[in-house]
Structures are given as structure tokens and as C-alpha cells.
Amino acid sequence: MTFESTYRIEGMTCAACVASVDSIISKVGDVEHVRVNLALEKAVVRWKVGAVENHLAVEEAVNRGGFFASSMPTPQQIRRERISAVRQQGWKAGLALALAIPTLIVSMFISDLGSSNGMNSNWLIAFVLSLPVYLYLGQQFHVGAWKALRGGRANMDVLIHLGTTTAFAWSTLVVFEPMLPFLPSIFATTRHVYFDGSALIIAFVLLGNYLEGKAKLQATDAVFSLMDLQPKTANVLDDNENTTKTPVEEIEPDTLILVKTGQTIPLDGIVVNGSALVDMSMMTGETYPVRARIGDEVIGGTILVDAPLTISTTQPYHQTVLSNVIQLVDEAQMGKAPIQRYVDRIAAVFVPIVIVCALTAVAYWSLFSSGFDSRSGGDIAVLALVSTLVIACPCALGLATPTALMVGTGIGARYGLLIKGIEALEQSHATTTLVVDKTGTLTTGKPKVSHIEFINGEVREILSLAASLEHGSTHPLADAITTAWSNVTNKRPDVTEIENVGGMGIMGTLDGENVAIGNEPLMRKFDVDLTEHQVKIQQAAAKGVTISFVSKGQNLLGWIEVSDRLRSTTKGAIQHAKRNKLEVIMLTGDRIEAAESIAKECGIDSVVANVRPDEKAAYITSLKEDGKHVAMVGDGINDAAALALADVGIAMGAGSDIALDSADIVLLRDDLMDAMSALELGRMTVKKIRTNLGWAFVYNIIGIPLAMGLLLPWTGWLLPPAFAAAAMSLSSVSVVMNSLTLRWWSPSQIEG
């Protein structure tokens, strides 16, 4: 038998860290498989059959690798810690910018303030302003760089550390050269310092980390929201039918529990006593509650509507259907978008190349610089070293993604599109398949009476009798019927002895006769003959409506058809998707008749119906395994796992909190047309990100050889560090300006 252990992993900042932790733990003896979740900061270790878990070996191995492993705290504790960490990142970024900007101003835009003890006052002020930025606010990059180097890795931290340290150390020596006469002459003759470059690099990267931290925090909302759905306690029945509140984690299978009217069922189980309507919308997406009777299975997290139930539990709390949905969402979030790993993979190659280039320049000019100009080989070597490292600072690389993300999300918000993470933007351009839920996505989710068929009665008689029977019910059908009644008449007959008939409808007594409203089995119960009306009944069923028959005695008075209407924009959105060569599939927990009727009405050719949340998630997975890039649009809790598993999860803004948390994109206006606009904006934003990265690479390809002294033998010109810093700033400005062009984007006009 295999088993799993879960560990908290601290110190992970990027996809490269995830890969490192995975590799480290995999090498521990008896470990069969490892799953590492960056967003939730955890690693799940599956041990080999017959193995004994070795917590100490795992923790020691991870700690040696430069990270910190410990036993997993509660999800709530992790949540609080992550919120605190993001807030800390925010104020650090703000403080860094507050110090870096004055550093830039005093270095470049304020006239000479004179000198103090032979030291330039402007430079001295810049040194004081940038010192806390470099030493304190930049500490995480310096420590991260040394950890990475110690572990044999090269990441963005290494670049940031090398660039900022070189610029800061060089500038510091220039400022204090009057007090250090033993320094080479180059420090006395230089006219430039780079405190502003060092501080701005740290500030911009901190800002990017803050934005990334907020995105990660949002990514975990789905898991924590799902956890909140499950009650923490249950009423356990003893042999004397007394109840005791017991934590759900202590309840074993085959335990009898009592769930009262209006309460959430805490655990999966089987009904052993009672009959009640159960609101299954959380799990199935069904618009209407389902009757649960003795012997029926019920799912934890669903809600009792109209009566109590005694339930025998079938699963422990960590193996319920709801827990499985939580796990599906959790595991789905372990996936990483390639664009998030892009910069780190590049840095792993780029950093060693930059270092080699800088050292090569130092060695070459130290040996072969004579004859080019009056400067010594040492002076040229130092200038080449500083210029190469300064120009290679990753400011443009660090800004490429967060600036485009900020502009893209801001523009999206203007048009009612809430884009929550870079993953959605990266995946949008490749979407081939659009999967849509039915209830609340294609339709309004608010059933209304669409037709009344009267046989032996008038409309008012049928509606008033139906309203009397449904008056005390909380069923959505009852709401639709009573609303229709209130619009037609205010009279209601005095029906007595009203009672629910399990799974069939409601019955009562009027003028000494049985009256009823419900389905065909209920009519048969009262010997109401429907034979001669079967053609009309079948025609109504083909429309996907819910039929409620109304009878008095053995006479059929008529029936009421209740339907859930399409949103006004649904047809146009589906047509637009098809014009953009997207395969459109309806995926719903509703009945096949209703699903096919809606699909035909809005032009969807493929329908998958009668599916539960885990089946929805499995279907999304199967589509992805077939090589399709899937965008999923939904609104209910039952869609949470599918939304998380989809390449792009899109939630309607009026949907459940769980769906909103699981989705990558939220449509604030509940307009399916906006889903197409969101995909379009995603494609445009990712293009900007890739353009930004491309410009950053071109800049380095051109700038690094110039900084190394490529033109010195022929022109006598060596790129000064000041020019290198300016080029670095120019690359950053170009990235920002390119991202800002997204502000001109607007949604395409969608016909029909």
C-alpha cells in the first residue's frame, strides 16, 4: 500500500525552484513520486510500496538545497502568512521606488551642489539614498543569488545581484576615492556613478514580485473557498437518538448523522430516514432541487431544502466528493504556464554567458590593450567589466511581463474583463476548443413560466390552484409559478392537507377532492389519464421545458411549462466563436433533453450532459490529452474543478464565489460575448510580452559586445558605463512604452 506525506516548502520563487525541489526530493530513498505546488508552497511525496516515510531525510535534503522544508501547517495558517507576505512585498516596492526616484533626480537632474571633504555632494546624497535600497530592500536578491550559486543554479537573482552590486560598488569607490588614495587612477578620473541604476533595478523587480505575489494569492482562493463549504461539525446520533456535535474529521464511515432543514450536508452518505429536497446545484448544476429518499446517496456540501434527513456516512471527510473536487482544483493549479518559466530558463543560460563575457573582456584588455588610446589596460578592463555587467542588468527582462500584465488587466477591467493571472494570457492565443456550461452561462439561471396548457380548466384556475399548492415550497419551480400567479390574479383557493409526495410533486384537498401538481408518476397515482395528450406532452418535452401537471380528482386541468431562457447575447457569442474556428461544446449536469434543446437553439453541435463535477474535470482533461487547448466558461461551484483544469478558465461574474476563484478570467457583465473579447485581449497581451522579451534580447545581443569593447580596436571607442546605464534605462522605457500601446485595444464588434 502506498501513502503520501505533505511538506511545507519555503523559499521557492519561480518555476526553476519548483524543478529544483522536485529533483531534490526525488533523490531521497523510497520516494516514488513528487508533486510540488508553487502557489500553495507545498510538496506532496508519494512513498514506494512497503516504504517507511522518512520526514527527516526529506527535510534535510531540501534544506541542503537552499530551501526550507517543514511539516505542513493548516491551510488557514498558510493563507494568513501569504497575505502578510504580499503586503510586505507591496510596502517594500513602494519604499524602494520612493528612494530610487530621488536618487535618479539628484544624480542626473540637479545641478552641482559642490563638494564635501573632496567628495561630490550630489553623488554622496545619491549614495545615502540608495544604500538602504541596495543593502536592505535588495537583500532578498543577494541572498537568493548566493543560494542559487551554492546549489549550482543561475536565475534572475544572480543577474540582479551581479548588476546592482557592480554598479553600487563601483559608484561607492568613485564617491569615496578622495579618502582612499590607494585606488587606481580610474576612480579619480571617472565622471559617472550608477547609484540610480542599482536602486531602480531593485525597485522595479520588487514591484514585479509584488504583482506576481498578488496573482499567486488569487490562485489559491478557489481551494480555500471550497474548504469553507464543508461544515466543520456534524450532529452524530447515538443509540438513544440524541445528537452530539462532532468534528467531521473524527467521523468514521457508517456513522449516523442528523442533518436539519436548511443545513449543509457535512459528509457523503446514504439516506436511512426521511425524504427531502436537496439543492444539488453546487455539485451538478441542476437548476431545481432533487428529491432524496431512503436508500439514495447524498453528497457532502449540498443543502437540505424542506425536511431533515438521517444519513449513514459512507466516506471519511478527506475522501468525500467535495474533497475530491478540492484536490482537483489544487492539482490543477500545480500546472505552470510556459511564459512564466521563460525568463528563468533564459536567465539560467544568460547569466553564465554574461559573466564569461565580462571576464573575457577583463582578461583580453588587461593583456592586449596597448596602442588603442592613452588609458591603461587596467582602466580599460575595469570599464569593460562595469559596462558589460551594467548593460546586462535584467531590468527590461524583469519588466517585460509585469508591465504588459498591468496594462492588459487594466484595459480588461475597463471592458468588464477581470484577468487574474498570466497563465490565462499565455494560453489564450492557442485556444482551439470553447467548452461552456448551460445553466447560468448560456441561460439566465432564473426559470420562468413559458406556457400554460389548459385542458379542463382556465389559465387563472390552473395558476391559482398551482400557487396554492406551491405556496409554502422553496423549490425554484414554485417561485416561477407563484410569480406567474401574482402577475395574473390575486385569488387563491383554500387548499388543505398539503403535503409533498417524494420525487413526484405536491398534493392537497379542495372541496373534498384530491388536487395535485407534479410529474407523470404523480398523475398516475391519482388515476389521471394522460394518454390522449401524449403528442403534446412529447412536443413540450422536446423543447427542454419542465412540465408540471395540475389535476383535480381524476381530471387533468392542464399543465404549466417552466423554462430557463437563453441570455440575449448567447447566440451571437456562439456564432462568433465558430467564425474564429473554435470548436464549441456544451458541458452540463442538466438532463440531456434540456441540454439538447438549448444547444439547438443557440447553435451548439456537441453536447455532453448528466455529468458531475469530477466528470466535468475528467472531460476537460481528456480534451487536453487529445491535444486541444481548452477555454472553459462556467458559473457554478460544480464548474470549479473544470475551470481550474482548463487552459483558460472563464467565469460569469454573477456565478458562485468558487467558480470566480477557480477561473483565470471573470466576466463582470455576465455577457458570453465578453469571453471572446477576453481571449482576444489575452492573445494581444501575450504578443506584447513576447515582443518585450524579444526587444530585451536584441538589446543585449547588440549592447553586450559593444560594452566588451568590440569597436575599440577599429574606432578607439569603448562604451562608457554611463552609456551602458542609459542603454539599460532605454531598454526598460521601450518595454514600458510597448506595453502601453495595449491601451488602444478595444473589443471586436460581434455581430448577431
Number of strands: 28
- Classification by helices and strands: alpha+beta
Trace the largest sheet across and list its strands: 16-28-27-26-17-24-25
* Fraction of residues in β-strands: 15-25%
Form type: elongated
Number of helices: 28
Query: What would the average pLDDT be, to the nearest integer?
Result: 79
Please describe what this structure looks like.
- By secondary structure, the protein is α+β, with helices and mostly antiparallel strands.
- The protein has five domains: 4-72, Alpha-Beta Plaits (2-Layer Sandwich), CATH 3.30.70; 79-219; 231-319, Distorted Sandwich (Calcium-transporting ATPase, cytoplasmic transduction domain A); 415-439 and 569-680, HAD superfamily/HAD-like (Rossmann fold, 3-Layer(aba) Sandwich); 448-563, 3-Layer(aba) Sandwich (Calcium-transporting ATPase, cytoplasmic domain N).
- Helices cover 51% and strands 18% of the residues.
- The strands form six sheets. It has a seven-stranded mixed beta sheet, sandwiched between helices. The protein has a six-stranded antiparallel beta sheet with strand order 8-7-9-15-10-13, with no helix packed on it. A six-stranded antiparallel beta sheet has the order 18-23-22-21-20-19.
- α4 (121-137) runs antiparallel to α6 (156-175) and α6 runs antiparallel to α8 (195-219).
- The longest helix is centred in the C-terminal third of the chain and has 36 residues, at 673-708.
- The protein is elongated.
- The model is unreliable at 332-337 (pLDDT under 50).
